[in-house]
Predict the structure of Alpha-amylase family glycosyl hydrolase.
Amino acid sequence: MRIRLPLASLIVGLAGTALAGSVLAVDHAPHDFYGTDLPFAANAIYFVMTDRFVNGDPSNDHRDQGGAHHTFDIPVQGPNGETDNIGYLGGDFKGVLDNAAYIRGMGFGAVWITPIVDNPDEAFTGGDPVTWGASLADRGKAGYHGYWGVNFYKLDEHLPSKDLDFAQFTQKMRAQGLKTVLDIVANHGSPSFSMPVAQPMFGQIYDKDGKLVADHQNLAPSDLDPVRNPLHRFYHAYDDLAQLSNNNDENPAVLDYFVGAYLQWADQGADAFRIDTISHMSTAFWKQFATRIRARHPGFFMFGEAFDYNPDNIGQYTWPRNGGISVLDFPLRQRVAEAFEHPHSDYARVAERLYLRNGPYANPYEVVTFYDNHDMARLNATDDGFIDAHNWLFTARGIPAVYYGSEVGFMRGRAEHQGNRNYFGQARIDAAPKSRIYQQLVRIAQLRARTPALQKGLMLPVQFKGDQAAFYRVYQKGNEHQIALVLLNKGDAPASFEIADHLQPGTWKAALGGPNVEVAAGGALHATVGAHDVQVYLLDAAATRPDFVAELTRLMNERGHPGAG
């Protein structure tokens, strides 16, 4: 089919007076045009649940830990012989490091690992029993995921190996070309009440010296007495998530504790933080936290999880006055899942969540984009759907994050306690190159890794309609300049594109193979993109065409929320 692409200003609201279509030279230095100059934005992120990735060192499995409430290999039975698991399965730092070349080879520049802090040494006996597909049910579960911190200054014993503590891990990952994103938690600790008999470590928090500083004492939150019991002051006297402790963000001692803990891990080489449950603590807390972390580590990148599809609710965390902390882009994720799980859905629905001008975020180019994670059902798509999702994720605005195993469609469609967090393992990694999903992910992720315009460039939509999308990405700063034209086709048949809007003359290089295209002044670029495929054309030139410059200037000036300062 042939798609005639109308003006961007008519399609996605990038309104402005259309100037003459002729290409004119400008008589002044080129403008700076970029979505972000954040160094971290160059890196796509591969997210591993460390315990479930690869068991690189069986000597740290602690298979006998927990006694009657053992913590290793606790299967949950499902239908048709399927299983989930709520115990430790052995993944560790060595398993990640041993596969650093695999991750880097796909085109990722950073690895997000789950929390590394010490968790309880028994399986939890309180809460609700875990059944197939249950949510917020923790009875019988161990802290394999790392989110049940007890001592936030102490490394959990399941992760390190000889000569591979956290500082050595981050150093060796950097030597492999990978940054480390550390998942951190401040909102809660371990499950803290509802146990038939109080268990050691649960509901307790210890300081750097091993001193007990907080103890829930297996009491319901409403039974805590922070006025008379100093060990209760760390907690709010009301519940929040399941039976997890609810740390008191209004207590300065809580802030001091977590700043100290996470400065320690940043000092040991963490390159960025992903902040769990950021919306469960106040923006005042996060402003102080971010300020103190960045006082020692200037420009330190952080992004938070506010599990909310309302952009006005989550955007506030990105504003400088609230700490300038980026977020996972849940609103866009909602539409991305819709687009790639359902064939022939409309790309226009995705475009509505880009928020490129005067939107809810301080900078939409610095949010972390994704289509699934460990807390929701994995993308329920065909192989083609995963390929289309990756073609989008690695060319559109934002910093892409991909959950482990998605490169082969691992456990697609499965939620927690249905296999979402199942063990991946070395055998699957070794077999991954045979997967079509993997092969196409490598192709597009490696392109982003070597293309500044796709990492940091302004995004100017041209067409979002049906199965086709077309947009420019423009990076122009100082002596660097690159214009990318991205053409996406998620349809089942090849699609022909004819692009004239804002198009500059010159040699447009086909970045993914195929012939380059020579475009004359006032001409159009004609291209055919295969079914479930992408093409990216690159022009090594500064933006000079007046209507193009006008739209880019508008995008540059209006990138963020007008009141975000």
